[in-house]
């Protein structure tokens, strides 16, 4: 009787534990892009999904394409998905998930990763160089204008001072009644 009772108790505890484990969600994995998430047209990128468990199956998905799904098993804590010869259609929002061995339930989805595929003309580095060149040109031009403005103002000031003193002396001569020699 006691052995039967212990067997039933053990079975109940095991079933309860299994039920509790199924309701528990697996934590989110992390997703990163190597070497970076902004890449040039026709280049390669590796999307790396990582979790805290070993011996899992990873899945890479794309938010804009529900049919896009890459699956990879791993004995370690991560899986690398190599995307080669990238085109603009490969750009988008990616995520990953995993499931542990013997489970049919996927973990929560990772945080989204935005992959940007550029051609050589609209790279962020190229636009910043173009912007920097414009700033340098505008600064140089402004400095040149200011440099030429100061001597011009000085010359105008000197000429007006010289002309006004000549006119003042002519007025003094006229007021005193003396004749002014014409040059």
TrEMBL record:
It comes from the Eukaryota. Residues 1-16 form the signal peptide. The chain crosses the membrane at residues 135-157. SUPFAM superfamilies: Immunoglobulin. GO terms for biological process: immune response-regulating signaling pathway. One of its GO terms (cellular component) is plasma membrane. Keywords: Disulfide bond, Immunoglobulin domain, Membrane, Signal, Transmembrane, Transmembrane helix. InterPro entries: Ig-like_dom_sf, Ig-like_fold, Ig-like_Receptors_ImmuneReg. The keyword Zinc does not apply. The keyword Signal applies. This is V-set and transmembrane domain-containing protein 1-like isoform X4. It comes from Hipposideros armiger (Great Himalayan leaf-nosed bat). The gene is LOC109372455.
């Amino acid at each position: 009787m006691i052995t039967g009772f212990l067997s039933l108790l053990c079975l109940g505890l095991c079933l309860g534990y299994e039920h509790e484990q199924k309701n528990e969600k697996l934590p989110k994995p992390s997703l990163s892009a190597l070497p970076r998430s902004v890449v040039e047209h026709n280049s390669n990128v590796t999307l790396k999904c990582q979790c805290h468990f070993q011996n899992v199956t990873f899945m890479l998905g794309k938010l804009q394409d529900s049919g896009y799904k890459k699956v990879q098993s791993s004995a370690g804590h991560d899986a690398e998905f190599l995307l080669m010869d990238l085109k603009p259609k490969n750009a988008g929002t990616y995520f990953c998930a995993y499931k542990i061995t013997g489970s049919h339930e996927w973990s929560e989805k990772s945080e989204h990763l935005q992959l940007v595929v550029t051609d050589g003309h609209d790279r962020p580095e190229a636009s910043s160089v173009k912007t920097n060149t414009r700033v340098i040109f505008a600064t140089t031009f402004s400095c040149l204008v200011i440099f030429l403005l100061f001597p011009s103002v000085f010359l105008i000031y000197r000429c007006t001072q010289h002309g006004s003193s000549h006119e003042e002396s002519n007025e003094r001569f006229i007021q005193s009644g003396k004749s002014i020699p014409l040059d």
